[in-house]
Predict the 3D structure of the following.
Amino acid sequence: MTASETAETADPVTGRSSPEAVKILIAGGFGVGKTTMVGSISEIAPLRTEEPLTEAGLGVDDLVGIEEKEATTVALDFGRITVSGDLVLYLFGTPGQQRFWFMWSDLALGALGAVVLVDVRRPRSSFAAIDFFEQRGLPFVVAVNGFHGEHPYPVEAVHEALALSADVPVLLCDARDRGSCRDVLVALIDRLISAAHG
């Protein structure tokens, strides 16, 4: 970085450079835990666009396996986490229902990477997100959200079942746990660094 670039991004009071801002998507199928993950890890009060499920969604939204779900994201979730003095992640959670997938392309603009959350009880619900990022060449990691704290399958079995390429990491996580969510984001950052130097 040149002196002029440093001057442009430096804080006028402290003289320190501003941290690098990185946009990350949190994606996956309907009801896999995206809103929960953003809320668990965000250092600010997350922005949520949840609305109650209504009769209008009957026959449209697939509630098999998540019958207790009462609300859904209709636009996006937003949160922020400072990783270090040099790096801040801006997290954008995508809506999961198929009728809102048209928003994914707009949400992906400027994103450097993504986390695809998977519910192994309903793995097909995350196929669309995996295909979306593969087709765009956007680096991602897969995080298996252990509902009720359970992880019935090893990562190798999940990797094979999802037919992921060898370079896509699969991690076990709990979207309710801040430390677990942090580990997933660290794995994504490591993948982005490797891709940048590859």
User: Anything to note?
Assistant: The two ends are 21 Å apart (CA to CA). The longest strand covers residues 71-84. Residues 1-8 have pLDDT under 50 and may be disordered. Strands lie at 20-28, 47-52, 71-84, 87-93, 111-118, 140-145, 170-173.
